[in-house]
Specification:
13 strands; eight-stranded parallel beta barrel; 12 helices; globular; alpha/beta; two-stranded antiparallel sheet; 360 residues; 18% strand
Length: 360
């Protein structure tokens, strides 16, 4: 796998409009609207975008397929759950989309809890979920790279399994890159041995450095058989023309989030449902260290319902935020999944102001 830097965004494939301050429009998740986002990403220098997953949202793989058909360079980073798919079925579907899109597919494997009973997944124990994920990744990678696969595991098995269309092979690329998240011990053991990219939330530099060191040690201790693990950052980037304007607007935005949270806003309640996850709790605990860490990593949004990438924000001018992101890059982070709302406006602003600085 190539270690070249990747700059991705986020496409809001949500059932309800107005996600985290996005523009509320009636056709917010229509194919035409989502295509406008994808085309804007192509025009403004982004490599592609993450399509998030949770039960009850539009199916990420279907959305990715539709957008790939309407674009030429856009790379969908499709979040999928092993509890949604059987590994051979997913390997075939992903290889087909990769083949039809000319090798543009990226995959984000998600193992966290997501109301499994609603879609018939009975595996609630986190340790077993990650053991299942490891087998899932092993089978998928083998099907993408081997002529025929037989695998007998505790959670999955295949016998004499072969794929028709195979993923696009180009240079060092042998198949779609496999992104992975999770901060628990079980999750890190899976990442160290089976993933291509470990995604971190917006933690301070010392936390990310600590995790990179630990994952590298784990890779060696557990006998990783693949190319070295790469690292990525998923974070909100709040950019304005000046530092002062950025902080003023950020504080006004969080004031609105606080007001909505006080009224029991559904988005806030749902986002806060991720508290139990180890990585999410690490983010929420950061506020005890201070409101602003590493010069411009703001922890306050997490107090008012900002889950995941919305828990901490990098705030400032394009120069401020680029400086911060380059510090993560100095630690070894080469994949960036950024976002802010309104999503379409910020695709353009940050594509024009921030990306050139990151690539300079």
């Amino acid at each position: 796998m190539s270690g070249a830097s990747e700059h991705l965004w986020y496409v809001p494939n949500q059932v309800r409009p107005g996600h985290r301050g996005d523009d509320v429009v009636e056709d917010h998740n229509s194919l035409d609207t989502l295509t406008r986002h994808a085309h804007a990403l192509e025009r403004h220098g982004w490599g592609g975008a993450l399509l998030g997953t949770s039960w009850g949202r539009p199916d990420t793989f279907t959305v990715a397929t539709a957008l790939a058909a309407r674009t030429t360079t856009f790379k969908p980073l499709v979040a999928i759950r092993p509890g949604f798919w059987r590994p051979a079925h997913f390997a075939s579907a992903a290889a087909t989309l990769d083949h039809l899109s000319g090798g543009r597919l990226l995959v984000n494997i998600v193992s966290g809890s997501d109301g499994q009973a609603a879609y018939g997944d009975g595996e609630a124990d986190p340790v077993h979920r990650y053991a299942r994920t490891r087998e899932f990744l092993q089978i998928v990678r083998r099907l993408w790279t081997q002529e025929e696969v037989t695998f007998e595991g505790e959670h999955f098995s295949v016998t004499g399994s072969r794929l028709g269309p195979r993923p696009v092979v180009r240079g060092e690329r042998k198949h779609p890159r496999l992104y992975f998240g999770g901060a628990s011990e079980a999750a890190e053991r899976v990442a160290a041995t089976e993933a291509d990219v470990q995604l971190f939330w917006g933690e301070p530099l010392d936390g990310v450095a600590e995790r990179i060191d630990r994952l590298k040690r784990l890779s060696a201790e557990l006998g990783r058989e693949h190319a070295p693990l790469e690292f990525g950052l998923r974070v909100t980037t709040f950019v304005r023309d000046t530092t002062e304007e950025a902080w003023a607007d950020a504080e006004a935005t969080v004031a609105r989030l606080a007001e909505r949270a006080a009224q029991g806003d559904a988005w806030s309640a749902r986002d806060r449902g991720g508290r139990a996850a180890v990585g999410q709790q690490r983010l929420l605990d950061l506020s005890a260290r201070g409101e602003v860490l590493d010069e411009n990593l703001w922890t306050t949004p997490g107090r008012f319902g900002g889950g995941g990438a919305g828990t901490t924000w990098l705030v400032g001018s394009a120069q401020d935020v680029a400086k911060s992101l380059r510090r993560y890059q100095d630690l070894g982070v080469t994949h960036f999944v950024l976002s802010d709302t309104p999503y379409l406006r910020e695709i353009e602003r940050q594509g024009d102001q921030l990306l050139p600085l990151l690539r300079a």
